[in-house]
Predict the 3D structure of the following.
Amino acid sequence: MDIKLLSKQYKEELLYNVIPFWLTHSQDREYGGYYTCLKRNGDVFDTDKFIWLQGREVWLFSMLYNKVEERQEWLDCAVQGGEFLKKYGHDGHYNWYFSLDRTGQALVEPYNIFSYTFATMAFGQLSLATSSQEYADIAKNTFDVILSKVANPKGIWNKIHIGTRDLKGFSLPMILCNLALEIEHLLNKDVLSKTIECCIHEVMDVFYRPELGGIIVENVLKDGSLSDSFEGRQITPGHAIEAMWFIMDLGVRLNRPDLIEKAKNITLTMLDYGWDKQNGGIFYFMDRQGFPPQQLEWDQKLWWVHIESLISTLKGYQLTGDPKCLEWFERVHNYTWNHFKDPEYPEWYGYLNRQGEVLLPLKGGKWKGCFHVPRGLYQCWKILENINIKQ
C-alpha cells in the first residue's frame, strides 16, 4: 500500500467531494440549521431537523475551521447552525429535543441522550472557533446535565419497567470517552479525570468480556453481569470498534501503552468476529449465542461501521505497528471504497444489503448526516499523513 497516495485520496475526497456536498445542499438559508434528508444528488426530500445531526454538523465545520484551515465559509456554516440550535434546540434548561420541524418548532421530546452529547460537542468546538464564552457555557452546562442523567439517560421517557431487568448500555460510556477529550478545555481537572477514569472502567472492565473470547457486549445488567435476553445477547461490532479508537486516544493522552495495546487487540477481535465471511463487510447487529437477532436489519452493511473501522485499524497500526492492523485496514478500505462511494455523485451511500448492494440511495436522512464520512476521511488523512512522515 502506498501510504502517501492513500493520504492524498482521503484528503481529496474530504475537501473536494464530501464537504462541498454538505455546504451546498444542507444549509437552510431561510430558517437556519441544516437539512439532513438528502437524496442521492443532494435534493432535499424531508425538512425535519434532528438535533443530534444538527450538532454533528456544527461540530464538523467548527473542527475543520479549527484544525484544517480558517475558511470563512466553514465558520459561517457552523455559526448559523449553532445559532439555530441555541435558539430552538432545547427547552431553556439544556434538555435537548430529538427533532424539530423546519422552522424550529419542537416535534419530539428530549428523550435521546445523544441530542445532549452532540450539542455539547458542537458548542465545545464552536467555542474554540469563535472564542465565544456563551457557546462554551452552553457546552459546559449541557455536559453537567449529561452527567446528572448517566444512571437513567431517558429519564421520564424510559419505557422500561424498572426493577425487572435493569440494563445499562455501552453507548453512553463509549461516547463519553470521546466527549471528555472534545471539551477538555472546558472542564476542571478533577471532573475530567473522574469522567475519563469512569468511562475507561465501564468500557474496558464491564462491557469488555474476556470470558466470551474478548468481545464487547452492548448491554449488561446494572451489576455488570450478563443477561440472557435479546438486549443482553446483542453485539454491535461497529460500536465496539469505534470505541476502541476513542480508548486509543485516551491511552495517548494518559501515556498508557497498555491501554492502547488492549484497545488494538479488541479492535482486531471485533473485526474478525463481525466480518461477514460469505459476502464481506461488517454485520450491523449480532447475537453472542448465534440466535436470530431481534433487529431485522441485522445483516445490513452500514457506512459508519466501516468508516469507524478504518480509523481504528489505522490508529492501531500507527500506535503499535501491528501489521495485522494494516492488513485489516486494507480489507476494510477496499470494501468501503468499492461499495459505499457513489461513482457519480458526491458523498457516500449509507445502507447496503448483505450482498453489498445499495439498499437506500439517500445521502442523508434521520440517522445519517454530515459526520461519520467527513470525520473518518479527516482522521484517516491525518493518520496516514503522520505515518508517511515517520516512514
Q: What stands out?
A: The chain has 13 helices and 14 strands.
